[in-house]
Amino acid sequence: MEKGFINNLPRIYGLYTGGFLGFIALMAILEQFGVPADVLGILFVTFTIAIYAAIGWLSRTMQVDAYYVAGREVPPLYNGMATAADWMSGASFVAMAGGIYFGGYGYLAFIVGWTGGYVLVNSLLAPYLRKFGCYTVPDFIGTRYGGNTARLLAVIVLVVASFTYVTAQINATGTIAARALQIPFEVGVWFGLLGILLCSMLGGMRAVTWTQVAQYIVLIIAYLVPVFWMSNAQDFGLIPQFSYGGAVERISELEAAAGVGQLMPSESFVGLRALTTPHAAASEGAFASWQFVTLVMVLMCGTASLPHILMRYFTTPSVRDARRSVVYSLFFIFLLYFTAPALATFTKLQIMDPNLATGIIGKSIADVQSLEWIQKWSNVGFLAISDSNGNGLLEINEFFMRGDIVVLATPEIAGLPYVISGLVAAGGMAAAMSTADGLLLAIANALSHDLYYKIIDPEADTRTRLIVARILLLIIGAGGALVASLQLSSILGAVAWAFSFACSGLFFPLVLGVWWKRANRQGAIAGMAIGFLAGSYYLYHVRFAGGPPLLGLDHLRFGIVGMAASLVAMVGVSLATEEPDAETQAMVDAIRIPGGDTVLDQTH
Amino acid sequence: MASSQNKATHWQRTRNLTFVTLAIWFFFSFFVHWFGAELNTVSFMGFPLGFYMAAQGSPIAFVILLFWSTRRQEAIDEECGVAE
Fold first, then answer.
1. How many CB pairs below 8 A link A and B?
2. What is the span of the domain harbouring residue A7?
3. Which residue among A123, A323, A594 sits closest to B18, beta carbon to beta carbon?
4. Which of A396, A480, A507, A584 has the fewest CB atoms inside 10 Å of its own CB, making it the most exposed?
5. H/E run at residue A88
6. A292 interface with B at CB cutoff 8 Å
7. d(Cα A498, Cα A89) in Å, to the nearest integer?
8. Do the beta carbons of residue A298 and residue A503 sit within 8 Å?
9. Which is nearest to B73 in space by CA: A332, A75, A327, A589?
């Protein structure tokens, strides 16, 4: 039956995609018959979550290798889709285009960093970790370097980085569920968590894999369809990603006329911003360049150190397939990331260009305030308009909004039917849920496999191990939801920190474990501990203690400090202590060639 | 089972490929964007070039780079007799 499932994947997911498109068509018909927008939103979100839960139920398992690594039978194309969903979070889906809208050129560092990181994953880590045959990332650290201290440190870094990240994702599911289902945010958070756990509790990695593939299909359709539709409806071109150069140019002219960067807002609204940064212009000088490339560096090395991404490459049948999955992953991620700047550009043009019917800047305040989408989104506190200078016209520094609007409200700004907005809500939900699933599983697996089974109770039988894994999943999920419901930080701030935490503690111990035979246990322990502590202390220093940033490295870039400390400590301590024994060196030789048995057994 | 000679050659070639891949990666990740402001004075398909490279050029380069290097790596594995 299992073989039949793998062989039938193209048919199963083909049918699923067709079914989802049919569902969208059905919703569009219902809209024509006058079904209210709220009902469509509820149908979109509940229908897709029900499908994911069904996949989670069908994938339930009591086998260790199915639970931890999906039985190592995921073909590269599907693993690529699953990784893309695992990777693209609520932040990528909802906040990225908005970030570019407000941040302009400087924000594009996120696009470069979050794609280029996969070159590091492919060249330095994924195929070698797959050959190693581990279940979790700390499993590699613990076996390569030996000893419980190294394993435990890896678990700690993993938990801190992933937990920082997962609260942001649960927060995003809560926001979207609250809006689509019209329930309070605090309830939305727990509802989101319930959906997430339905996908992962029973089937572990196997269930998460097959729901993530389904979630990728939903999220990519939900992101691309509105952009293509809008672009063609407004004559921006058939494939907008390649033809928005003219729009960028036009924005530069409009920005000069509207005074972007000159007119500063004289009022402020909580959580909302007015546009003050030019779209395409890059700040000149070495300092601006340094800021750009250091952010790129942190995001890339963080990508290559985040365990929920690396563990996806443990699920393929072979080393070759692990490598191929990375390539597919990057391609599937690229589809969304090269669309985000186009979306930000179109939205900005539609708002700013007085020649377009949608343009609002320069129009009379009373006219703008009577627009339906303006009313709807200002009612929920996502935008605000204020005639600061009292001239009756809307100026660029009198229009305030939240970045999330760029993705959530663009269909309405462009006058697309509501069914598209429902689709976007389902896509955002899929993006946030799939990432939360991967992260929760990474944390729970590290705690159950590395902490409980390898360190606390190595005699535990399979049944006990899998029950412990599920209980931990529940506890961590609940903890994440609890923190998320407190709304401590903005979604994207916490996401960027996760990358810095991960690369501070794990990047060099992982990479040098494969690429430097001389790296030993003492070095790895020093690298993880000192890198992680130095990074965390620096974050505290610049973010909370009010200390001046060193070389312009602010709280988004604290991973640079952590990685530098980690590298120096790891190399220094390794060289000062004895080299690893012959057995360890043979292990490193073995992971460098694809053929032959894995270092760890199929089930361990 | 591959001979140790083969394994040594394989690792040598794998390392060289990785160095080349990372050099190209470095160029598109850091070198190009260091000159973002300067590149923006050049227009490419209507885009300021610096903006284009960050929004599209570098990500496209990464995708092509990975397709290429993965194919090369698979060829190396085959030729050295260490493929699975």
1. 160
2. 2-247+280-345+417-592
3. A123
4. A584
5. none
6. yes
7. 13
8. yes
9. A327
